[in-house]
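Hi team,

Filling in the usual template for the complex we talked about on Friday. All components are listed, including any nucleic acid strands or ligand strings, so the model treats them as one assembly.

SUBMITTER: L.P.
PURPOSE: interface mapping
COMPONENTS: three
RESIDUES: 957
SEQUENCES:
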Amino acid sequence: MLYLKPTHQRLSATRMAPITLGFVGLTVTAVFASFAIGARSIPISEVVAALLGTSTSPEAVVVTSQRIPRTLVALIAGSGLGAAGALMQGHTRNPLADPGLFGVNAGAGFLVALTAFTIGISSPFTITLAALFGAAITAVFIFFLGLRHVNSSALVMLAVIGTTVSALLSGLTTAIILLDKQALDVVRFWVAGSVTNRDTSQIILTLILTIIGMLLAVSNGFSINNLSLGEDVAKSLGTRVLQSRIVGILAITLLAGAATALCGPIGFVGLVAPHLARVFSRHDYRWLIVQSALAGGSLLLFADILGRVMAPPGELQAGIVMGIVGAPILILIARKRRLVAL
Amino acid sequence: MTPEPNSGLQLGPIGLPRRSTAVKATITTLGLLLLLTAIALQRGEIDIPLSRMLDTFLGRGTRLDHLVLIDHRLARLLVGAGIGCALGIAGALTQTIARNPIATPDILGVTTGASAFAVLVLVMPRLAESTLGISGRAALIPGAFVGAFLTTALILGISWRGGFDGYRLILVGLGVNALALAFTTWLLTKASIEEAAVATRWLSGSLEGVTITDIIPLFVTSLVIIFVCLFISGDLGALKLGRDVAKTLGVRTGRTEFIALALAVLAVAVTTAIAGPIAFVAFVAPQAAMRVFGSAGPPPIASGLLGAVLLVSADLFAMSLPVTLPVGVITAIFGAPFLLYILRHQHRRTRA
Amino acid sequence: MLKNPAIDLRNVSAGYHHREVLRNVDLQIPRSHITTIIGPNGCGKSTLLRTMGKLITPTTGEIHVNNRAIRAMKPRALAKNLALLPQSPSAPEGLTVRDLASRGRQPHRPWYRQWSPEDDEIINQALAATRLTDLADRPLDELSGGQRQRAWVAMVLTQETPTILLDEPTTHLDLAHSVEVLELVTRLCLDRGKTIVMVLHDLGLAARFSHNLVVTKEGRIVAEGKPSDLVNAPLLEEVFGLEAHVFDDPFDALPTVVPAGHV
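RESULT (copied from the run log):
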């Protein structure tokens, strides 16, 4: 198993603040790029005018009706996934951990398929709700199955149980979509992971959940620092281990579940964003979580932007681009970083 | 479960360790296989009594009997058992090398690579026709093979760095896996709904339409894999103690890890080409075998046996359902609760 | 210069990932004696041992084991000459003592003979020597620290090598268990003529259980000799930065270290 080195330093705020600002800057750049770049290139002046509401040109309309929503979606989902990934890697101390291990993707997909099969999908909001419930129920189910193992420091068993339950749900999902063409049609597009065509109700719901999840995540950061020194040391430092784990899992489910519910399953953001952030924060999770969130948001935004220009005249869904972009990043990680092997 | 004293049997220059838990488990598993064979040969719409079965096997039966019994039932049974066995062994090998129970051959990206190319063939038949000269279902197998070996070459090429490192291989495999998955997902969105349905069905793994000729590559592959497994079984056992200890015991760890992974890749390439990706067997069989056979890590050959049992029973069950579902779906739906049951009732932490 | 050293290092430099730890080390390990390497944390003791065991490839110099260059030796051949027990080894859960001991036979086994009555006999003898015969079929994780370490020594024993390297075999063991393991190791040397090279962090135990000491600091060997000659206050001050009193204990006349109290 691969383990991450424990935290030894508490990095001072004077060092971390500018780095975090750097990430904020990156995100802001990504946001503006997202407003400006696309099938139709829109100059920054027009973008600003559109934001301020002073322009009604066709370009401005594109910005307000399409670009702003999809930017918002990518930002919410990407930051949620980034933070969830950081939490996941922190709790399992495994640099390969991905929020998907808690069955978030498989559970969401299953309930989407089931809903499409039984009552039919009437609106995008239905998909989001179904995905959300699926993710939440699955995560809770896995957690209770593996409750006995939550206290073991590597949570390996939880990952095994998570993988098993995911496979079960995947199988059931496939069974459903093979029996029902409608369901197949819904699922095959949902599975590609997309940030477009999301309506306001979906966005607002997931925004609320992501904010709650983010608050939980940041508060969990301090405990993770202590937990990485070993559970006994953490206890002597005053950390309530079981409580921290539960908060962590709750946060991961909220964040990753909301992101998946909004966009469909998007891989790699949760895996890669923490590694990007880790270049600067080493292992101080109080900062790492925020920086992973920012990195995740930027990553997904860039993926979406790339998808707009990569394959004219059409677009590539963000989930697919993430797969293409994430792969070389992961390979770079494999070649450069020395992971502490156990 | 109390471990029994070690003893062994020696036949000439060959020596095998023997422990009674493993012996009992082996006998039970072989018995199960025999039972499944009997069921498989019996089941179906056409009833063939035992006497006619014997005639057919001896070459004296009618043409229809031959078609049903040998070309269909026996073929399906043998291919199912062969694939289950190959996947079980492949899973045991990757889990041992990675010392991680979630490391399955699929993460090496070979299954996804093979699938991506097979889906390409399904969705763009004209492309396949112009490059490979064949179309339709006939192009699936070569397509999957091409995909599997291209992916493997890519993974090996990227992760070679003066030698192979197990962890780096897995990380690169994950990356290539994602690439292939993205490609497949994109293909599915681009295809027509009918093509997508056919492709999705293939992607779940099915023994439908396997022929007796499929057995040949499977048989050869399985023999090679089992033989090489026996060759490295001692080294694999030493590897479980960690790479440092294995090295001091004289094991060439780099070479052993590479061979093990190469075998896993071979198994996955062949099985995916024949029946599509049947993912879960490679994960479940070694974990179950480890506990049922009482060994301290996933046992390769035992995982193969259990994998064969799992796949054949899943297929028999799938055939008995009112609506035919691909066997890959059944293995997931039944394999998962089975594994969860074992995990809860054996009270043993996994450490591959 | 020894005429027939068990291990001979000439001008060996070695390290990890372009960070050099050992610098131009010359060392000869005498046969059938216990040699212990001591030194402050991070001085390269483990690196030295691991380089001897070919787990690390030296960047310069040559190492000979039984007069054969290890660079040219095949892994199996080396494993029949030299056994190395790394620090804090781990074993998969459920592995029994006998299973572990039998792994030591690996270098001697052709792939088709994973078991033989001769192997069984050697394993039984090793279990008897480590007094683990009654515990042979128990899983390792049910044993105490000292028993577990003895099981690993049993594995090393079945390897039947003339030389044994042990990297901190007493870490995590209390005094009683440490002494248990070290007495076993001493028996192996005195009764069976094995050459033992150990890394120990406890000076007192090192002085007590060694024929020779090798003192390393910052990747170089700064002193070599018998414990009674070597272990004295100036050495402790210079190498370890420790102010201490050293005297011969009243029972065995072996050097005993007591830190100079300042509180």
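MY TAKE: Strands of chain B lie at 7-11, 14-18. The CA atoms of residues 80 and 96 of chain B lie 24 Å apart.

Thanks, L.
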